[in-house]
Design goal:
Length: 507
Amino acid sequence: MVICWIMLGIYILLMTVIGILGARKTSSMSDFVVGGRKAGPWVSAFAYGTAYFSAVVFIGYAGRSGWGYGLWAALIGVGNAIFGGYLAWKVLAKRTRRATQRLEIKSMPQLFEKRYGSRAMKIFAAIVIFFFMTPYSASVYTGLSYLGEIVLEVDYHLIMVIIAVVAAIYLVLGGYIAALSADFVQGIIMIVGVIAMIIVIIFSPEVGGFSEGFAKMGELMQTEGIADFTAPGTSVLGLISLIFLTSFATWGLPQMVHKYYAIKDDAAIRRGTIISTVFCLIISGGAYFLGSFSRLFDGILTEKGVIVDGVMTNTDQIIPTILAERLPVLLLGIVLILVLSASVSTLSSLTLTSCSTVTMDLVAGALRPNIKPKSNLLLTRILCLVFIVISFLIASFKGPILTLMSFSWGSVAGSFLAPYLLGLFWKRMNRAGAWAGMIGGLGTELILAVGSGFDTANSNLFGMIAILVSFILCIVVSFVVKCNNGEDSEAFFAKDEKDEVPVNDIQ
């Protein structure tokens, strides 16, 4: 127990130092939001990966998916790496970096404004981001609370305070420059922790090694009807929708797209693509791989009250309970810092994206266009702190708004993915089509959510439907309705000189 607290103290001290050093390099809004656009491949790839995977993946999705789908759950991690990592960088990174740097774009609402010549679209996008990212940021706290209560034996509110304080320290002080350094350190911690977890859990008595573990799970999946998806709550469509939403929806999430803005050059993108893919495979693949063996630990789960009378009571407690029982204290401390790192990095990414959007696109872009740059930077810092406090309060009270988290990915991706992706590659895509896709995708997600009584079990399917509807509307309306997107729209497709500047590996 003491070892865990010592490791936690070292982690907090390290993040504080990173925040102070980042503050010394942050003097402008560009520094605070996009780090001066000087990020190299390693920090860019790690920033992308740590924003992608929060504690929810390790504690919630891995346990829930592993319990429901067995070994099939590992496909989710592979899908995240191939589609959410490699393909996302391959398709989006270069065009996004070039267009946003050419037009000095720092946020997704600004991207829509420049591409489609609509200030109203910028304001609408900013509102969507802030409204739906708030409940998602609140959910980040939940994943760590279960593990923290078991390992540190303290109330989960204290664990949430630690997450909020650490994120506030380095983000408010140093902005994106500090976040890049912090994400790199936290990414290394996550990699070490996941590899260590895999080794210990796979060779635990319940699993018995790779060969024996696969044999046990294969037999169990056949018996329980998981292998052929006949078990209650399992379906091929359910698994596909989960892979689809967690892999492709990220293409349209502002906090993920934001990582492309700050990349130094095309050489960094090429190397960052590989680094990001490997990182995603280790983290997401490792998390879901571990979760896929969770049914072999039913004895421990029953003993600890997670399973009562043969019924699973709380899937979020599966992984924390298994880890607490099977990992030695030192490794448990590393895993605690791993999950804390995942929580803090995701929270800081969501906070920076949401708050900079409000100050740049709503305040400076609409309400107070004459605001001084230094005042806007100060306002962004203050708003980041306020955002973290609000998300903490929402998570603490566990009110109905937290239920919106299950639908936030589908809402934001349903609204943004099609206008963003088609806008990068298709010149004929126009403002009318973008508006139709945005409103139609968001409306579809909300109608399905409300109509189902906010049935979180189908949230992934609703998100997939919303994205598909948005794409159809964007394409159909762009063909039918003719409109001019403005001068800046052409700049998205301008030819750049080849960017082959060598990249410093340290960045």
